[in-house]
UniProtKB/TrEMBL annotation, chain A:
Protein name as annotated: Carbon-monoxide dehydrogenase medium subunit
FAD-binding PCMH-type domain boundaries: 1-178
One Pfam family, short name: CO_deh_flav_C
Matching InterPro entries: CO_DH_flav_C, CO_DH_flav_C_dom_sf, Diverse_Substr_Oxidored, FAD-bd_PCMH, FAD-bd_PCMH-like_sf, FAD-bd_PCMH_sub1, FAD-bd_PCMH_sub2, Mopterin_DH_FAD-bd
Keywords, sorted A to Z: FAD, Flavoprotein, Oxidoreductase
From TrEMBL, chain B:
Alphabetized GO MF terms: 2 iron, 2 sulfur cluster binding; metal ion binding; oxidoreductase activity
Residue span, 2Fe-2S ferredoxin-type domain: 5-81
Domain of life: Bacteria
Biochemical pathway: Alkaloid degradation; nicotine degradation
Species for this entry: Geodermatophilus ruber
Record PANTHER family: OXIDOREDUCTASE WITH IRON-SULFUR SUBUNIT
CDD domains: fer2
Entries under InterPro entries matching the protein: 2Fe-2S-bd, 2Fe-2S-bd_dom_sf, 2Fe-2S_ferredoxin-like_sf, 2Fe-2S_ferredoxin-type, 2Fe2S_fd_BS, Beta-grasp_dom_sf, Diverse_Oxidoreductases
Alphabetically ordered keywords of this record: 2Fe-2S, Iron, Iron-sulfur, Metal-binding, Oxidoreductase
Protein known as: Carbon-monoxide dehydrogenase small subunit
Length: 289, 178
């Protein structure tokens, strides 16, 4: 199928883009970045925006920069650009690793990091990474910009804390001095994953001092597994701590089954991914010391 | 509501100015407005890859791209590969190694293979398998496609027969119907 008719604007400033969102509020406006989620949904008419506001000409949104130790990614930075960026490899290696799992290179050439986060697919990689990394979302609306912590951003499937007149203009990834790992299970590499795990751990004095673990595909949003984190902190890195974290992290999960995997299967897969993710992050944290 | 937008596209080295509805997909503008039906339409949601074209040298899905999104940019399609009756080395190797059966995926496979060999002129079989996984083929089992790409690699490294940057179509595309 093809998209039904809609109006289209390609403004050159963020304030013009926001003004268009306000002006066409009754016309179901949507913001377009790379379009790799939105255009397929429009092809199938699952999304039928009345007005599309394309950010491609907005100056300043295609930049990726380090502010002190914080990696700041603008709304039009393509996934393939971020994947190849030495700044991302250095400042947010968890993001760099996860990007390799996002669809295939031809999709990543168009798709954006920030667009994927704003799309908020509960099975997608980048929202889980943002949640584990305690990223900050910069939402720009008529009153200016505000920052939303990742923990308060994902509200439901494809639903975020963005107001209808706000655009996610930047995502800020703070540094994490430790080890990282992104692990997922997909039927075929590049297809939508059934479960993904983003893990960050820091070590000092022979024990885990900090842990951040998020999982995708196990609920209506990516989920932060605080029970797994608590099971790790204060423990020596090793099999006992990892198993305790796997048990604690998966104890409260109640995923909905679908044709790809039933609920029990998903929990089994989550346990395996969680184990591999935490092991991988711990191994890197040990290398780093 | 016919909201036409004027865009300029350079396709296979030739510039076109077109008035398009914003809902028109790049693949449809290539096939219908510019008379270049070599790019195929498959799944229409970015999964199968038969619509793959190069945008400023990087592979994209033309079924998941609105034509208005690529205003001012440069597109290469499968029509740019052959030079008159002379096939591109990748096309010859796909023929020789039987890297196709029904041929539906071939335009996308070829354009993705062009990019793979531009990025890694001397790939291992494993690298070709990994990279070509972006495109689906339901006939060949991929074995002959991988062999064809590997066979084309040394010929393109030699570079004496074909200039991959020339980007000029042998068959001149018809002007835009607008």
């Amino acid at each position: 199928m093809k998209p039904p008719p809609f109006r289209y604007s390609a403004p050159t400033t963020v304030s013009d883009a926001v003004a268009l969102l306000v002006e066409h509020a009754d016309d179901d406006p949507r913001v377009l970045a790379g379009g790799q989620s939105l255009v397929p949904l429009m092809n199938f008419r699952l999304a039928q925006p009345g007005h599309l506001i394309d950010l491609r000409r907005v100056t300043g949104l295609d930049t990726l920069r380090l502010e002190d130790d914080v990696l700041v990614i603008g709304a039009m930075v393509r996934q393939s650009t971020a994947e190849r960026s030495p700044d991302v490899a250095l400042a947010a290696p968890l993001l760099a690793e996860a990007l390799g799992h996002v669809a295939h290179p031809p999709i990543r050439h168009s798709g954006t990091v920030v667009g994927s986060i704003a799309h908020a697919d509960p099975a997608a990689e980048l929202p889980a990474v943002a949640l584990a990394a305690d990223a900050e979302m910069v939402a720009t609306g008529p009153g200016g910009a505000r920052r939303i912590p990742a923990a308060e951003f994902f509200l439901g499937p494809f639903t975020t804390a963005l107001e209808p007149d706000e655009i996610l203009t930047e995502v800020r990834f703070p540094p994490f001095p430790g080890g990282h790992a992104f692990v997922e299970f997909a039927r075929t590499h590049g297809n939508f994953a059934i479960v993904g795990v983003a893990a960050l751990v820091a070590l000092a004095g022979g024990e885990v001092t900090r842990a951040a673990v998020a999982v995708s595909g196990m609920g209506p949003t990516p989920l932060r597994l605080t029970a797994a984190e608590e099971a790790l902190v204060g423990r020596a890195p090793g099999a006992a701590a990892i198993e305790a974290a796997v048990d604690a992290g998966t104890a409260g999960l109640a995923p909905a089954g679908d044709l790809h995997a039933g609920a029990e299967t998903r929990i089994d897969i989550a346990r395996a991914c969680l184990r591999r993710g935490i092991e991988g992050a711990l191994a890197r944290a040990l290398d780093r010391r | 509501m016919r909201d036409l937008h004027e865009i300029t596209l350079t396709v296979n080295g030739r510039e076109h100015t077109l008035a398009v509805e914003p809902r028109r997909l790049l693949v449809d503008v290539l096939r219908e407005d510019l008379g270049l039906p070599g790019t195929h339409i498959g799944c229409e949601h970015g999964v199968c890859g038969t619509c793959t074209v190069l945008l400023d040298g990087a592979s994209i899905r033309s079924c998941s791209t609105l034509a208005v999104q690529v205003d001012g940019r440069s597109v290469r399609t499968v029509e740019s590969l052959a030079s008159g009756p002379d096939l591109h080395p990748l096309q010859e190797e796909f023929w020789d190694k039987q890297g196709l059966q029904c041929g539906y995926c071939t335009p996308g496979m070829l354009m993705r293979a062009v990019e793979i060999l531009e990025q890694e002129p001397d790939p291992t079989p494993e690298q070709v398998r990994e990279e070509i996984a972006s495109n689906l083929c339901r006939c060949t089992g991929y074995q002959y496609i991988v062999e064809a790409v590997l066979a084309a690699a040394p010929r393109l490294r030699g570079g004496q027969q074909w200039d991959p940057t020339a980007g000029t179509a042998a068959t001149v595309p018809t002007e835009a119907k607008a």
